[in-house]
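Milestone 3.1: sequence recovery, worked example.
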């Protein structure tokens, strides 16, 4: 038998079970009469439950503990962190927390702003469109200048050949 790092009591050593003891399933500690009686009762109950479950419902899985008896919605379970505004019903808004309501309002406001932005109705969109208009004009002027310079070079080449 192995001995632990420290002695548990001054009268004895720590006892560890060997792999053979574990595989057999027995332990060196004797069980009390009460534990044996409880195990027998549990085995009898399991046998009765199995026979009842087989006759009543073959498809249902066996629930552990009180899961089959009590069905409770646990409020501590993790909720989805990011909920999109279009996925939420307005009827459930009373159930939401203040932070969730603020987040939904923020998302809705952002969606409205983006729609107006696409339609060109916001000030930022108007400024962007004006900038784009100026840039297009500048590019058109630059293209005309390039074409004129090209034409001027071709004319010089043609005059030089003559």
């Amino acid at each position: 038998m192995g001995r632990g790092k420290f002695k548990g009591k001054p009268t004895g050593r720590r006892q560890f079970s060997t792999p053979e003891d574990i595989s057999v399933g027995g332990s060196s500690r004797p069980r009390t009469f009460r534990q044996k009686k409880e195990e027998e009762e549990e085995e009898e109950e399991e046998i009765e439950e199995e026979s009842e479950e087989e006759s009543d419902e073959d498809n249902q899985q066996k629930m552990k503990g009180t899961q089959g008896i009590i069905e409770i919605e646990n409020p501590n379970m993790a909720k989805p962190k990011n909920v999109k505004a279009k996925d939420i019903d307005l009827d459930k808004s009373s159930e939401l927390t203040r932070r969730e309501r603020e987040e939904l309002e923020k998302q809705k406001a952002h969606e409205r702003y983006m729609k107006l932005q696409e339609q060109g109705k916001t000030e930022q969109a108007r400024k962007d469109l004006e900038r784009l208009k100026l840039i297009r004009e500048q590019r058109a002027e630059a293209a005309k200048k390039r074409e004129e310079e090209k034409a001027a070079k071709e004319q010089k080449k043609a005059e030089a050949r003559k």
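Residues 102 and 132 are 35 Å apart (CA to CA). Helices lie at 19-24, 33-56, 98-119, 123-161.
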